[in-house]
Description:
It is a single chain. The protein is an alpha/beta fold and 308 residues long. The chain has 13 helices and 8 strands. An 8-stranded parallel barrel has the order 1-2-3-4-5-6-7-8, surrounded by 7 helices. Helix 5 links the parallel strand 1 and strand 2. Residues 303-308 have low confidence and may be disordered.
Amino acid sequence: MLGPVILAASRSDRMRRFVSAAPGTKQVVARFIAGESVDQVVPVVQDAVAKGLSVTLDVVGEDITTREQAYAARDAYLELVEHLKALDLGTRAEMSVKLSMFGQALEGGHELALGNVRPVVEAAAAIGTTVTLDAEDHTTLDSMFAIHEELRKDFPGTGCVIQAYLFRTEADARRLAGSGSRVRLVKGAYKEPAEVAYQQKSEVDKAYVRVLRILMEGDGCPMIGSHDPRLISIAQELARKAGRKLDEYEFQMLFGIRGEEHLRLAAEGHRMRVYTAYGTDWYGYFMRRLAEKPANLLFFARSILTKG
């Protein structure tokens, strides 16, 4: 059960300093982070699109403690929009945002986050693309869903993320599965208490299938956020039973994980979108990737030992 330990470490300043200074960290981080700047990530986007893939871009960074940092996060996304405008890729390149980056946890954070994310969504719509609101820990979700609902009034293509391990998610899925909605379903990657979330992998997997069935039988566009081969096969079967065409749902996977599977699904005609993170404040994102899969942690440990 290393996952919960790693997730706890993702909030530790001491562990942040240790991991950042470890000699093998840079090599492993490069596996999951596409670059430190927007200039570095643009060639990654172009390469993915040339291979028949789509992308959703995430400027990493969550530990916002001042309004100035929240405004800077907004401006980083607006800079990204300007670069995407030049590429003219439409929805082949969308964006994912965490509202914590836009000041959600600060005093007056709900209105602050809404005020910061709205211009990003507006700018994205102006170049023909969309934004998806990422889910974070359970205490932030009511605010996230309220902001999502508000944004969809003017920008109905705005997506959101739901997490299968939370008990509330089946009800959220039923509410969100309406016409025109875009909902990414993931297992969940935060340390959540037993009072609100399933703790066993088998229970999370079962919940994922139940929620995915709700989305597939609904009228929106389900976005399957998983690398699990079994869940991918189940998703294809649920889509077939629901009478969905290949362009009526999509798969989403992380940059740096199962790259050959990205290409296989795209070659079969599926919409395949790669969640591509970049930026310098990578620690929280990186630690959740280690927590999700023991092989990632072993890869990191080997790198440290090799470089040490």
